[in-house]
């Protein structure tokens, strides 16, 4: 069964300027239920991740200042959100969602988090709408509990997974792969184990050719026994922040490539949704929904 983390806290209200990106957390589960891709049984409501788990990845000083709302104005501006207790509580539940989804992926082969993909969070700071790093926390959990020994993080959001790269820079048991817009945020990139910077405007054929060149080779090289997939849909040509040229069909083919490889190699995969900033909310929801539809089709 495809298990999907979702909580009402995911749709935490924000000031008007920040509400639009949050709409997908309400609309996506409604769409998946309406069309019959999933039923209510597929969803689980995650718990907040325990503090000791958070401290396995994030610095204690940063975590203390985050949860007590003591970040500096500069630090808050870098996160992109006005800081509040509700926002921090929401983030901690999202972290729990990816950790719990990782356990479900071990059981069923695949699991998803409606939110997550917070790859701009470093050990000691937040950036780019990310306060804590869910894929890093879940990967560390699997390693700590000896539920995985070699993890591959596939980050196909349009923005480099800079926080994830920094967190695992010296961890050979986690291989970080980021295929992202070379001229996009962040201006200063970190060093993933493999970075594939993309030119502005790249379209489906060239994008998919690059992905199909690198990804099968990574499965052979890394020999992962678990995969985290950051499936941001800000690669779409319609995205306001993306600068790339993918169509809905190309984005779907991207997800198909990743999920089929995981299924073929019998490697459990945990998906997080990441970014999506198209002008029409319907374009964002449709692209994300394709990821869930494919997971259901391929694995079940």
UniProtKB/TrEMBL annotation:
Membrane-crossing residue ranges in chain numbering: none
UniProt key word Lipid biosynthesis: no
Gene Ontology MF annotations: histone deacetylase activity; hydrolase activity
Entry keyword Hydrolase: yes
Start and end residues of each Histone deacetylase domain: 24-289
Domain of life where this protein originates: Bacteria
CDD domains: HDAC_classIV
One record GO biological process: epigenetic regulation of gene expression
Keyword terms, alphabetized: Hydrolase
Similarity field: Belongs to the histone deacetylase family.
Protein name: Deacetylase
Organism: Rufibacter radiotolerans
